[in-house]
Amino acid sequence: MAYNSIIVRLEMNHELVNFGEVASTVSKAGGDIRSIDVIRSGQHNSVRDITIHAADDKEREITEALRSLPGIVVVNVSDQTFLAHLGGKIEVAPRQPIKNRDDLSKVYTPGVARVSTAIHENPDKAYSLTIKRNTVAVVTDGTAVLGLGDIGPKAAAPVMEGKAMLFKQLAGVDAFPICLDTKDTEEIIRTIKAISPIFGGINLEDISSPRCFEIERRLDEELDIPVFHDDQHGTAIVVVAGLLNALKVVGKRIEHVRVIVNGIGAAGVSICKMLLAAGVTRLVPVDREGAIVRGGQYDHPMWAWLAEQPQVEAVQGTLQEVIDGADVFIGVSRGNILSADDVSRMAENRIVFAMANPTPEIEPEEALKVVRVFATGRSDYPNQINNVLVFPGMFRGALDCRAKTINEPMKLAAARAIAAVVKAEERHEQYIIPSIFNDQVVPNVRRAVIEAAILTGVARRIPPDFR
Ligand SMILES: NC(=O)c1ccc[n+]([C@@H]2O[C@H](COP(=O)([O-])OP(=O)(O)OC[C@H]3O[C@@H](n4cnc5c(N)ncnc54)[C@H](O)[C@@H]3O)[C@@H](O)[C@H]2O)c1
Ligand SMILES: O=C(O)C[C@H](O)C(=O)O
Ligand SMILES: [Mg+2]
């Protein structure tokens, strides 16, 4: 269950109610008072802001209980999560002040014209003389936003702004959210190509499958800057990192385990591919209609590809049928589609990564009773398996070495680098993946990505610390 803080502004009539009654009402309804601010205090009444920490599903109960107290008027309820979004979460700021005409003539006309001419004569100078060197576009069409589905480009913006914040805070990358009002594959490709000159990389986000595969492939071929669909590869990289460590905890080998991947969309396809590359020999991809089986006929190009892989099982069935005896369940589908009973039919020492956001495939409280290792995509439980462990360091590395593309060796290197942040002596059921606040994650991923880019010949610059 997610917890949140709400601020309730109350007007209290002191003749009818005292604060002790307010506090006990909040506590009985499941809230925890964290702070009280007196906004106005009079002889007969006062106005106070009380900050209450509570489970999401208790908020209504708490405010209703307060409203029913005699002598209390609930003036306003504000949710701190919404407050954190007021006015948007990022801004564009100048890197130097313009204090006088002299400054103005350097950064703007006439001085700027000489710089533009220099770039015209040598387009590579865009990297040293503009923001291209450090700027990534976070591009979505709003069609697969978290697990919320096709909620459109405007509603997708808070997620994209959040990604941009993380890029900057964790890796110093300037990222800009671009929310496109089109779902047409060709139009998306054309638009991204048209805006690409100012960017050093393109992070595709929350674009639904199967269009996301074609969009990424074409852009990667047609642009000379790295293009990375975060939901595919960021997720696959972090899953492989978590799985390598989880398997060590339970003492199983990747070649022996039977793995279910539920939800064969953007994330699921890339996870399946990377698991096969990492050595999985028994794979069961499952989507809404049940298992995708070896030898099956599918219109979806990536499902057809999976059906040709020798490691994919040939036995048909629903998730509830095929889960029996599985060692690992990886969910990148929808919330609440798995029960504790389903999980308890898996093999002993089972590993469950329930990564649908914001609601995991199974409630953590349910799953924790029946699994050995459990992870979600969320920040409010241990073992957060989220692509935020990947994209900041991945782009930091790709930008620093001016990689033309992000290839498979760079991805595998990133997965190993993340897994290696958790030392053998620290590793246990609740700690298979480092926290995003672990300050070794971004530098380790960056280093691994640059090394792999140099070795595979896609780096166009050797960063000073690699010379
Ligand atoms: N934790 C992370 O880092 C992370 C990263 C990427 C995606 N995700 C989550 O994974 C989910 C999928 O994301 P995506 O970008 O791949 O979306 P997507 O729309 O490309 O794919 C979702 C797939 O799940 C399938 N699906 C839906 N309901 C299902 C069910 N009941 N059983 C089996 N399959 C079902 C759909 O048919 C589709 O193929 C979302 O909830 C998203 O938030 C998490
Ligand atoms: O945004 C996230 O938290 C992870 C991922 O990109 C998702 O779509 O769920
Ligand atoms: Mg996403």
Walk me through what this model shows.
The relative contact order is 0.09. It is globular, with a radius of gyration of 25 Å. The two termini are about 50 Å apart. Strands 11-10-9-12-13-14 form a six-stranded mixed sheet. Strands 2-3-1-4 form a four-stranded antiparallel sheet. The chain has three domains: about 80 residues, ACT-like. Chain A, domain 2 (Alpha-Beta Plaits, 2-Layer Sandwich), CATH 3.30.70.1150; about 120 residues, Malic enzyme, N-terminal domain (Rossmann fold, 3-Layer(aba) Sandwich); about 240 residues, NAD(P)-binding Rossmann-like Domain (Rossmann fold), CATH 3.40.50.720. The protein is an alpha/beta fold and about 475 residues long. It is built from 18 helices and 14 strands. The site of nicotinamide-adenine-dinucleotide has 28 residues, from helix 10, helix 11 and strand 10. Its cofactor is Mg(2+); Mn(2+).
